[in-house]
Design brief:
Number of strands: 5
Distance between the termini: 47 Å
Number of helices: 1
Strand order of the largest sheet: 4-3-2-1-5
Mean pLDDT: 90
Low-confidence stretches: none
Length: 93
């Protein structure tokens, strides 16, 4: 008989560990937001990004990995998690 370990962390717990880090929240293949994770909310489920920018992504047959092609300042934004396809935490350089 094997012992069950602790339950896996929830999405909220994982996101809360990254507060203060830069990240990109992709809403669809060509659109998203980049900024610093300021807060995580459960009701409604979402994230607040400070120093945020709207980013436009584009991929081509020759370059299938989407690349950021434009940015537009937005200051602070709330992103509802139900609209997010992917979140990437960016490494500090």
């Amino acid at each position: 008989m094997s012992k069950a370990g602790p339950p896996p962390p929830s999405v909220f717990q994982i996101l809360e560990r990254h507060v203060g880090r830069k990240m990109v929240a992709i809403l669809d293949p060509s659109y998203g937001f980049e900024g610093t994770l300021a807060a995580v909310t459960r009701e409604p489920p979402g994230i607040w990004l400070s120093d945020a920018e709207v980013v436009t992504l584009r991929s081509t047959i020759a370059q299938p990995v989407p690349q950021i092609v434009s940015r537009e300042d937005r200051s602070e934004v709330f992103v509802n998690l139900s609209a997010v396809q992917r979140i990437e935490v960016l490494h500090e350089e």
